[in-house]
Amino acid sequence: MSTGLPFFRYHPDPVASGSFRESAERCTCCERSTGWIYTATFYTAQDVSGRFCPWCIADGSAAERFEGEFADAYGLDGVSEETLTLVSRRTPGFRAWQDPHWLVHCDDAAAFIGEVGYAELAAHPEALEQLRLDLRMHGWHDASQLDSFLTSLGQGASAMLFRCTVCGSHLAYIDAS
């Protein structure tokens, strides 16, 4: 985790995930150059670049001023209204080929760890097994095709890895172009 940046419970290392990068750009919200700029999703009807500093995301001022969200509420069923607001309006989102969405476990939003390939995913067998089950439910019945697809993650398709903030279990979903 990068020191000096605000802490985001549901996205603990937004520099490693690529959602923030070092930059001399000015924040669209506070108009300051803080040394960091947001590079991922921002959903709003307003014409705005979405280039915000970490502090304007953390305190909610960017989402409030530009009436937008950093993450879609899709998938956040069952979490409290406070958590829904924290994830969608005060947590940096992330880039994905398909519409990025947050996963939920133990009735709380999970923490986004990052985009991973098979090698990183294999270190979390519970997430890998969950992906197998999800893919079977979506029609992947041939075990050898399923295993071949999973072992090729990182080469055109990847997994979005999350960690439960309550029990520590890892979970993931597939993101492919």
Q: Can you tell me about this structure?
A:
This protein is α+β, with helices and mostly antiparallel strands. It has two domains: 8-98, no CATH class; 103-177, no CATH class. 27% of the residues lie in helices and 17% in strands. The protein contains six helices and seven strands. The chain has helices at 54-58, 61-65, 81-90, 118-122, 125-137, 143-151; strands at residues 20-22, 36-38, 104-105, 108-109, 111-116, 157-163, 170-176. The strands form three sheets. It has a three-stranded antiparallel beta sheet. A two-stranded antiparallel ribbon has the order 1-2. A two-stranded antiparallel ribbon has the order 3-4. Strand 6 and strand 7 (170-176) form a beta hairpin. The longest helix is centred in the last third of the chain and has 13 residues, at 125-137. The two termini are 28 Å apart.
Quick take:
The protein is an alpha+beta fold.
